[in-house]
Amino acid sequence: MAGVNYMRKKLAWVIGAGCTVGIIAAGGGIAAYADDGGSARCNDGNFCLFADAGYHGYMKGFPGNLGVSHMGDDMNDRTTAVWNRTGNTFCLYDNNDFQGDLLLRIPPGGSNPGVERWANDRASSAESC
């Protein structure tokens, strides 16, 4: 019976690993990282927001073809650094649904390790503009 339990655990691990690889390979989704790996966490083709200056702290990355009408509770009003690794210009707004003040316009390949004081921790939505 111990051998059966061992095989069940192994099968569950293999299935779980396969699902994880499938999700990673599919790509195109929103990536969020709580660890402090710096800017290396921002994948090519993503527009990334960081909670702390110098590309540290919590990070959320969005595919370059995706507008985000609400950052979500995990990143809303927390942006302190940005990196645009897409071919599009991105605009950040201080309200949901791309409304309110235009806080930042980040060109393709542009980045800012510490946004201006008046824009810090205010972004609620972002879109290719």
List keywords for this structure.
129 residues; alpha+beta; 5-stranded antiparallel sheet; 3-stranded antiparallel sheet; 1 helix; 8 strands; disordered N terminus
- Rg, rounded, reads 18 Å
The biggest sheet amounts to: 5 strands, antiparallel
- Give the overall silhouette: globular
Oligomer: single chain
| Overall pLDDT metric | 80
Strand content: 25-35%
Per DSSP E runs of 2 or more residues, the count of β-strands stands at: 8
Spell the H/E element sequence. Answer: HEEEEEEEE
Q: What's the arrangement of strands in the largest beta sheet?
A: 1-3-2-4-7
The end-to-end distance, rounded to whole angstroms, is 61 Å
Low-pLDDT regions: 3-28
Query: Which percent bin holds the helix content?
Result: 10-25%
**Count of DSSP-assigned helices:** 1
Instruction: Return the structural class.
Output: alpha+beta
Explained architecture:
This protein has 129 residues and is α+β, with helices and mostly antiparallel strands. The protein contains one helix and eight strands. Strands 1-3-2-4-7 form a five-stranded antiparallel beta sheet, with no helix packed on it. Strands 6-5-8 form a three-stranded antiparallel beta sheet, with no helix packed on it. The protein is globular. 26% of the residues are buried.
Summarize the structure.
The chain is of the alpha+beta class and 129 residues long. The protein is built from one helix and eight strands. Helices cover 19% and strands 29% of the residues.
